[in-house]
Structure formats: C-alpha cells, structure tokens
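Retro notes
What went well: the complex prediction finally ran end to end.
Inputs used:
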Amino acid sequence: MSEAPNFDPILQLDSVCLSYHLRTGEANIVPNLDLTLRRGEALGLVGESGSGKSTIAYALMRYLGPHGRIARGRILFEGRDIAALTEGELRQIRGRRVAMVYQEPMSSLNPVMTIGRQLAEVPMLHDGLSFASARARAEAMLAEVNFADPAAIMGRYPHQLSGGQQQRIVIAMALIGKPALLIMDEPTTGLDVTVEAAVLELVRRLIRRHDTALLFISHNLGTVANLCDRIAVLYAGEIVEEGSIRQVLINPRHPYTHGLLDSLPRLGRSKHDMPLRPIEGHAPSPLSRPAGCSFASRCRHAETPRCTAQSIVSLPVPGETEHRVRCVKVAELSPWRPPATGGASNMAARESEPLLRTENLSKQYAPAGNAFLRKGAVVHALGGIDLAVGRGQTLAIVGESGSGKTTFARIASGLDTASGGRVTLDGEEIATLPVERRPADIKRKLQMVFQNPESTLNPSHLVGRAVARAVRRLKGLAPAAARREAERLLEVVRLRPEIYGCKPSQLSGGQKQRVAIARALAGDPDVLVADEPVSSLDVSVQAAIINLLSDLQAERDESLIFISHNLAVVRYLADHVAVMYHGKLVESGPVDALFAPPYHPYTEALLSAVPEPDRRRARIILEGAPPSASVVPKGCPFALRCPRRLGAVCDEAPPPRQHGRRGHRIACHISLADLSRLQAAEPPTATGQPLFSPKA
Amino acid sequence: MALESISQAGPSTQHQSRSGSGGLDARRLLSMRLHASPMTLTGFGIVLFWIVVAVLAPLLAPYPPNATDALAAAHPTPSAAHWLGTDHLGRDILSRVLWGARRVLTVAPIAVLAAAVAGSLLGLCAGYYRGPVDLVISRIADILLSFPVIILYMIVLAMFGSSALNIILVIAVTKAPIIARIVRALTLELREREYVAAAKMRGETAFNIMLVEILPNARGPLIVDMCLRMGYTTITIGVLGFLGIGLPPPDPDWGSMVKDTYGMMSVWPHMSLVPCAAISSMVVGFNLLAIGLREDADRE
C-alpha cells in the first residue's frame, strides 16, 4: 500500500491454485502460487516441461479451457480480479492491456490475410482508428521491429516470411496496442540461435522503450538471464526460488536451482575437466503430490522428518532483499560454486586412423514434382564436405537449420545416398549404398540415434522388442538369447530390465532416448551417428543422456558423430568440431582450437549468440537469412550476412581453405592472423541494416 | 556413477497413471468402454443388437422365413400372429427381417474385410515405395473409382451371375481402392517416422517394415473407415437386392423385400417400410460407431 506509485504491481497472484479436471481426478498443476510483477519490470519464469509454466501463462488471461480452472486464490491485473471479469471486460484487457506471444509464430498469424491487415486490425478494434491511420501505425511498428522495408512487408502473407521474421511480426502485433504487460511463452524455442539472439535483443529494446512489463516463460536459463530483471524458478508448479537475476544465478540457494546450473553445459566446459551433474529422479505427479517439499525425493540434502513432514514455505535469504527460497535448510546449505571452467584441457584428442571419412561429399535433391511437371530448382544440400572421425573420437557437426547437418547424417547412415564424393567406413566405400543394399557387416558397424524421442520407438510395440529385434537382425541371435541380450543392453544404458515389457507411451522422453541408444548399440557398432539426440529434452535429462553417450564411448571406444545446434553441448562432448553453413563446411578442427580465436566469422556470431546464465555478452546480430538452398553462391555462402565482410571478393570468389594449427581449417577470405587480431578487439556490427546497440 | 539412480527409476509414475496398463488387453478394453462417448456407445449398441439378431435368428424368428400364410395374405397388416404383418404372399415380415440381418451381416463383413486386406496391401506398397509403384496403383484405383459403381455391379453380376461370392468379390473390388487411398496417405506419413528408419538400419525387409512397423500404427483410422464401409456396404447390398441382382431368392433379403412390395406402398406401406427401417438403422449404427470412435481417438 505504501509503495511508490511506479512500483505498484501490474500483476499480482495471491495463493493461486490452478487445476485441471482429468479423467483420473483433479490435478493441481499449480498448487499455491504467489507472484508479483511490477510496472515495467521483466520477470523470467523458468521451469522444465511439466512444471506448469504454460498453465500459468494461460491462467493469467483466463484461457484455461473447459477442463482447467482457477480453483483458489486471486489473479489481480491492475488491481482487477481476472476471475471476476465478464467476457466483455476480459476482451477489453486482452490485446489492449495484455498481449501474448507464443512459441509457434505461424499459428498466431492468419495465413490468408496480409501482414498489414492483421496488424491494422488491432488498433482498429481496440482504439477505433480508421483503416488508414491503423495502417500507418502498423507500418511504424514494423519499422520498430527492424524491418528495413515495412511497406513491402505489409503486403506479404505469413508464409512468405521466415520463422524469425514471423516471430517479429507477432511481437509487433503484440506491442502495437501498447500493452502494459507482455506475456511470452517460449517465444524463441523453435528458432535458430542467431535468430533467437536477434529476437531477444529486439524484445529487450522494445519493452524498455515502451515501459512494458514482461513475463517471459522459458526453459532456458540463459535466455532469461539475458533478458530479465528478476527470475522465478518453477518446480512442480511451485516457485522454489525467486530473486534478481544476479541473486539467483550467482548465488543460487535452492538445491533444484543448483541442479539446473550443474546440469547445464557451458561454452567453457568440456567432458575432460568437469562432468555434468544431472538431477536424478522424476518430478512428482500433480496427482500424487508429497506432503512436504516436492523436490525432496531428488534432493541430496533432504532430511526425512524436516523436509517431508509438512509443506514448505518460501523463506527470505538472510541478508538479501527480495531473494526468497522454498527450502527449510536455506540458512544451512553451503553456497553453490560455479563449475570450474577453462581449465586447460590437456587431454588433447588422441590422433588415430580415421574410421569414417568423407571426401568432397555433395548432395543435390532433384526438384519436386514428377516426370511431367518439374517445378522448382535443384536443391543443393551439401557441397564439398571433407571430414574424418577416428576410432574412439567424437566429431560434432554444428549448424543451424538448413545447414545440411542432418543430410550428412542421413548419407552416412545410408538413409540417403550421396550425389558426389566419397564416404568410406573402415576403407569400404558406402557413399552411394542405401541402407537396404549395405552388407550386414556395414549395417552392424554404423548405427544411428535419432532426434525425436516421440517417434524413435514404434508406439505399437513393446519397448524391449525394438532392442531385441535389432540384436536378432544385427547379431543373428535366437529369440531367447536376443531377449537376454536386449535386457543386458537396457542395463548398459542404465535402465531397469523390467522396462522391456513397457509400451513407449509409458516412458519419459529421456528414457525413450536411452532405449534408442540401447537399440543402436545392439550390434556393437564402431560408429554411432547421433542426430540432435538431446535437443528436445529438458536440461537435467539432457545432461544424463550426454553423460551416457560420453561414458559409453569411454567404455566401448566407438566413434561418435554428434550432430547438434547447441554449441555448449558440442563444446562439452566433442573432440573435433565441424561448423556447417548452407551445406558448406566453414570451419573445422579440434575442439579447443575451434573455441578460441581465430574463428570463422559465422562461428564467432554463433558463439556470441549462445545465451548463458552467468554473463551478458555483446552479441553479434546477424541480419537476414541464409541464401535459398537452390542457389549456389559464387563466393562465400555467408557473405550476405557476414559482419566482417571484406567487399566484393567475398561475393565473387569462393573462400580459400586456410589451415591453422593441428588440423584447424577455416574457409574465409580474411587471413587467420587478421581474424585473430580483429576478434581480440571489438565485436563487429552487422552490415548495412539498422541495428541495436550491442549494449542493453 | 551419477546416472545410476535416475534411470533405475523405471517407468515414471506420472506416465503410468496417465496411460493405464499397457499389456493387459482386458483392462484396456474396460477403460475404453468407460471412456467411450455416448455416440460410440449408441452406435455400438445398435450394431450389437443386429449381430445378436443375426446370430439368434433361427431362435428368435416366429416363423420360417419363406413360410406363407394364405390366411394372413388376405389381411397382411400387423396382427397378434404377425407382429409386423406379412407381405403380399403371406410371409411373416418380422421373421424375414430377422433372417435378412443374417445375410447382410455375413456378406458385408467378409466383403469389407476382403476390401481392407487388399486395400491395405496396395496402399502400403504405394505409400512405401512411392514412385512408379505408387503411380500404377494410384491410377488403377482412380480408374476403378471413376466407374459408376451401380453400372459396374450390374455388368459384372449379369455376366457372372449373382451369388454371395460374386457379390463379395465385386464389393471388395470397388471398396478396396478407397481403403488403399487412405492407407497410402497414412503410409506416406508413417514411413518418415524414425522407428521406420531404425528398422531399415537393422536390415528389416520392406515387407516386414510395412506390415509390422507401419500397418499397426495405421489401425485407428483403418478401423474407423471399416465401420463406415460396413454401413455403405449394407446400403449397397440393399440396392443390389432392390435392383434384383442381389442375393438369389427366395431367401429373405432386405433390398429384395422392398423391391417385391414397393408397388403396394400406398395400400400396405409396412411391407417396404420395415425392411427400409432395418437397413437405415444398421447404417446409422455403423456410422455412429465410426464417428464416435474417431472422436474418441481425437480426444485422447
């Protein structure tokens, strides 16, 4: 009551309980939530899947659907109880005072309306503007979200824009009504790192300028740290820790926050100097909530009567204002120490005879259509890829969507065939051998782990069958022996053998991915190709799978080709790294050479875009999108977006491949010495386009 | 090893409580029944009613289906002796409708099953191999589907005679392309799943991948479509009977019952309305079941 007027809460949640009516009973997704958001403040709500963060976002505007309800408590928006409003009053608030941005930009845009019309609709509806003045406002808003030519964008349809552009349109649409509160639910999750960096930078600038409060919901500690003032960590529907970014991420007090930070790969961290520590166990089901601390079953510090007897209240951290932790032992636990980083990894990768090698590998896809109606142009997915992976080594291939990294994996595994060049496995040529025609021995030697845990196991069959069948086919064992071997393999990937008889729908994402790994190990492969195996998993589960892959490799000495868009994971796991852009290799080399200057300018931009929880960095924002895959650039494929572009030479001549130390290769017109010198100094600004200042 | 306990946890309790038991079919069936919508249950009830009637027709029917009652023929309207009346020859309509259900429910399921087997195999091949195989199968299906089916039935049955086997064959041939199209579309999507790639990587044959990896995951839409197809086939059998090219007389057939009596519609409407009602109730039953199953699946 006595607070200064500019601090009065725009949003206040008082002991809110949100529940869904399920067939199996009433599930309290969010049992008891207190949250305050002040005017103009940016609050990050962080949680893993199932923590209730999206439910909260929907509840704020009473969008819970027929089965959900606000069971208890009050949600006050600008002092008005959301639950008590009529539909008409709620409509006045939605869009005008509060705007929401969701993960899938395409589903927020109407595919049959031009961008201009969709944007103009908001001020016409809410402020009663005429079409002409609403259009003028829309155009101004488009300029604000960094479209160089707003007038042209106004006439486009959503499908004519890239994912990042679409998300910028959605943000423009959210902010055009000048809302007091912007709610963003995982707005950058489907986007590439460099695009994500641009979108976050934009949001940061716009909310400052318009003094908009922001509730930013994410699973990614790094993005929240880079955007928000305060952070609330959500676990099983409860806020377990809350405070300023600095308080929570530099001095985290809750064991769960410790766990999250311990399981997060960092750019400076590799498997040799500091293993990741996953959080063990599972979050409790909302249907069977424990009486005490909901994290107790996974907590190393839990004490039986103290932590589990009664519900835990949120306590202030001694000596810190506004830092609150839901842990009875907050005053006793020793402070969290950030993992030791940068320890010179003296475990330099052993050089060994290459097991899998590609030479000048290329792939073109024929245009779509049939023999009579050819439309579109040839798609160039890969060009001139020279890579090798030695026995027992990990080669990581990094790139954004469309870079050709998955095509590489598919060709190596025989799910696709090369158009040119060579791929040899143990000396045998396999580039044009589809998997159906590969000899049994080649199939056994090279196996694959797939990206999507939801589709990697056949939902119609038992979990164990996937493994047992692979054992039978690849090792030729009889059914009974295959079953025993499958159970052994499930134990190898640290699953209980009982899981053999489960249906995939009973397993969590991490467990499914473990089964997929067990299946790939069935024939004792020499090379394991893993295509984004952890990208759809939660941080704590991701850490466990990464550790598993790395332990298995240490035990079995197989080669691992690890495909990822996540540089921190790659830094952690890889011995050698290859960076791909637009189907071309722009940089490759041993991991510590690659993560130190000189970088290829694209690698440099990628690295700067990685959101990390413990530091805010000047970011290199890449403008534009990669060239279309049907275009073969005459010069460097990255030239159009390159912040360090030299000039016409970049567009006209293919970049020379420069060799650094220990097999480090960079394809760039700038000499390695110049790159090192430039990159030690100021970060560059991107070319031509209107830009944000690199500082917040 | 930090990993041990995380993964020793086995299937997470959360998932277990959501999806119920995996292996036990009886419990799955029970849970499906409990969660079936009123629409599904109504459809299921109607279909079950006709199945029971068909099975028990010899016990339920008060008269032999072809027995004539000369006395009743003079006054064919419903009476205590003939609850639904008799036709112009004095045959008991109730008995004939009950026996008629038997014929529909033997011919239709066999025909639909034959269409489903042939259609699924063709659809799987078209969707899995794509390219020329798809081109050939899909164009043949297009040609079959572009034929006016009634004319096709008349030509074929006139040429080869109308027996139960011929009717089953001709219905299977005309319905299979529709099922093939559905299965092809499902296969095109399912063949891109990662478990199919995994099966290829371990060297499964194409036949095995199609039947073991893909087909079981297409079963939901396939079952729904087979229910719809059952309804349509009931109509087809009625139409064939009405056109006089259906199952050979004198055994009772709903379509031919209408054909024999529709001329007397203005005097004795019950003679044709009762078999009509039988046909539509069975069609409605199958359609409700199909739509209900689809909606239940969507809700899951």
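What we learned: Confidence is low (pLDDT under 50) at residues 1-26 of chain B.
What to try next: split runs per interface for comparison.
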